[in-house]
Amino acid sequence: MIQEKIIDLLNSMTLDEKIGQLIQITPQLYYDDTSSTAETGPIEKLGISEEHLYNIGSILNCGGAEKVKKVQDIFLSKNRLHIPLLFMADVINGFKTIFQIPLLQGCSWDLNLIQKCAEISAKEAAFSGIQVNFSPMVDLVRDSRWGRVLESTGGEDPYLGSIYAKTIVETYKSCGIASCVKHFAAYGASQSGRDYNTVDMSEREFREYYLPSYKSAIEANCDLVMTAFNILNGIPCSSNKYLMYDILRNELKFNGVVISDYSAIKETINHGYAKDSKDAALKSLNATVDIDMMSNVYYNNLKNLAFQDTNIEKLIDNAVLRVLTLKNNLGLFENPYGQLDIEKEKSYVMSSENLEIARKTTANTLVLLENKNNILPLNNNSKIALIGPYAENKGISGIWSTIFYKEIEKTITLKEGIEKKVNVDNLQIARGCHILKTSEFNNLLSSIGESCITIQNDDEMERQEFEKAINVAKNSDIIILAIGEHYKQSGEGGSRSTIELPDIQLNLLNELYKLGKPIVAVLFSGRPLAVKNFVDKVSALLWVGFPGIQGGNSIADVLFGDVNPCGKLNMSFPQSTGQCPIYYNHYSTGRPHTYNTRYASRFLDIPTYSYYPFGYGLSYSNFEYSNLVLSSDIITENSTIDLSINVKNNSNVPGYEVVQLYIQDLVGSVVRPVKELKGFKKVFFNAFEEKIISFSINNDMLKFYNHNLKFVSEAGDFKVFVGSNSRDNLWKVFSKID
Fold first, then answer.
1. Distances (CA, A) of 336 to 13, 85, 198, 259, 330
2. What is the C-alpha to C-alpha distance for residues 432 and 387, in angstroms, rounded to an integer?
3. pLDDT of res. 36
């Protein structure tokens, strides 16, 4: 449909029909089914009448080709103007081929891998009837206590986040599915890491670190932007006109659809910013928020507001036009089902090819944090004791995977993966303990509104399981210990005050350690954990996040050397919870922690630096860096410096290395970070191969926002660092002259 016809359609709509386009609900109101919808907020009766039910604009989390077609057919049969519904969904780390969580995907430092995961996710969703995906989440995250760090590919770095955002948006677009970038803005900076909490920061900090990833997604032509739950500098994002209109629409030139998060417009009342639902509707509409997700604020108030002020209907018209334009861009007026295809859904979704890609991509994102005395890779002739609550656990895909993925029995456990590598006579298995004590697990369930469980004779059962694990370990050559947090402890609403390993698992580890056997720890979690209190007791530590449907196979591939690990952290692992938030690109202080005095910026009980730094990850190869050379020690606004460094694989194991480039502005008109990632290259090396890796340094890499919020570079001295992570590197100094 051409744009003129869209405008004609808009002009033919009644006010009720227009307002309907600005409302999103779940599909249950159209037919009795609850199996395809995940509620991520307080469930309220929306009070939408039968008369207005068929004016609604979009549906949340209805997946499966037959279900979507049924809802669309029912709707179109009763919609006066035959304006199709738009089906949106949270496809975070896969539709049914569940990949590793986005945080782990980001540890690949590999745009081809990111693209492949996004492509399969998009196609599976599209064939199943989804037309808009609530992804990517591009929030910068520096605090591991926040549960939603698992959704971030870029982690704590704006450069990494920006290039990942661009890649995912462009991949979705190439697959014919719309992307919705979230959460605008600065949601990842919520105070104390508590979900839905306050954000307060300077404009310069916001522009320097938090805005770039959103900007990158918008420049890649994302279709929608979702508002954040938080307030930003005193105003809820969902009604923040400066943020949504002045920055997003005018400055960043975004002319697509803005949608609230789940009930976020109504929650501006709780914030104390809106007096009532009428006030909330007015302020969010004025901020150009187009769609009210899962609340009745727009539905109940926009009509009366429009009667009172003719300018309100103009704002409604603008919002509706953006929604209709999105539907038109997706071709829904010609084909209201989009790419929905029941036959392709059957043949493509969770196909053997997709599962194999999931296995390969996951293996290439796992991060090897410790490998003392090269205990890994394992010999498949060793007698292995597989112990721990994740030994046979299928809950390894993260909390978002539960929306559409119901075939949990198809998830490959660690046990199933290892059984393919070793003789069954050489493998013994014991859980040893649960992830949490029953009381702790019930507290978790209670805190998230779920029913508690009851286990008879729990203490006796646990004692027997514990003793079994010890006996199994005694008869082994090596222990693989599968430990971590419960998948319900991370994700939305999964903030934690402490991010250490649960005591029940620490007790098991400590008893196993007394046996004197090598322990290979496989750590499952949706966030970086504080591992200092146990890492000295293990010979190897492999962080696997929540690895998804092929997780057991992928982990086994790495443990037994079929895949050489190459993942690098995109978030720092802290020494303890008390360090959070912690990030590599922090500012210098007037009394740095290196001062040997009490009166320095340091902790009395732990080091100031992270336990495992950003960019860190070991390999079965041994990479050595040498001979860092700059073509010049002077750069100007229009010139560049060529940098080269020798990198050698000083081992007989071929593998990938991520060569990372960082820059520090030594003196600036505002304080600059100790270093910032400005480039990287993921390079494959054969055994004992040496390569010269090159980068080009240009003036844009030196720019920052000064105190006047001008994006500039300044004359002065700079350090350039190149190495395998943000801590271990070689460096040189160069100068910029005007």
1. 19, 8, 40, 21, 9
2. 6
3. 47
Let me know whether 309 and 374 are in one domain. no
Question: Max CA-CA distance within the chain?
Answer: 81
Bridging pattern class, strands 384-387 and 367-371: unpaired
Q: 443 and 321 share a domain?
A: no
Distance CA 165, CA 218 (A): 9
Residue with tokens 């307002």: 19
Answer yes or no: is 469 within a domain.
yes
Per-residue pLDDT at 449 exceeds 80: no
Note the pTM of the prediction, 2 decimals: 0.96
Residue 544 sits in a domain whose CATH number is 3.40.50.1700
394 in the same domain as 294? no
pLDDT of residue 43: 53
Task: Give the Cα separation of 718 and 472 in Å (integer).
Answer: 56
**201-204 contacts, C-beta under 8 A, 24 or more apart:** 201/232, 201/233, 203/709, 204/670, 204/705, 204/706, 204/707, 204/709
Reference 39, options 84, 82, 90; nearest CA is 90
- What's the CA gap between 162 and 701, in Å, rounded? 14
First to last CA, the chain: 53
Same domain, 128 and 267: yes
Per-residue pLDDT reduced to its tens digit, 535-580 = 999 999 999 999 999 999 999 999 999 999 999 999 999 999 999 9
| In-domain check, residue 613 | no
Please tell me the predicted confidence (pLDDT) of residue 416: 98
Catalogue the active-site residues: 261
632 and 666 both lie in a single domain? yes
The residue count for the chain: 738
- End position of a domain, from candidates 279, 309, 344: 344
Task: Tell whether 34 is covered by a domain.
Answer: yes
Q: Where are the beta strands (DSSP E) in 498-561?
A: 519-524, 540-545
| Long-range contacts, stretch 303-310, CB < 8 angstroms, 24+ apart | 303/15, 303/16, 303/19, 304/278, 305/278, 305/281, 306/15
Give the number of domains in the chain. Answer: 3
Please write the tens of the pLDDT for every residue from 26-45. 998 787 655 545 566 555 67
Domain limits for position 46: 3-344
Other CB atoms closer than 10 Å to residue 83's CB: what's the count?
A: 25
Does some domain include residue 65?
yes
Interval 622-639 mean pLDDT:
98
Which of 542, 566, 590 terminates a domain? The answer is: 566
Q: Residue 493 burial (CB < 10 Å; 0-12/13-18/19+)?
A: middle
The pLDDT, as a whole number, for residue 456 is: 47
172 token code pair: 């979705």
Q: How far apart are CA 376 and CA 324, in angstroms?
A: 56
The yes-or-no verdict on residue 1 having pLDDT over 90 is: no
Which residue matches tokens 């926002």?
Answer: 705
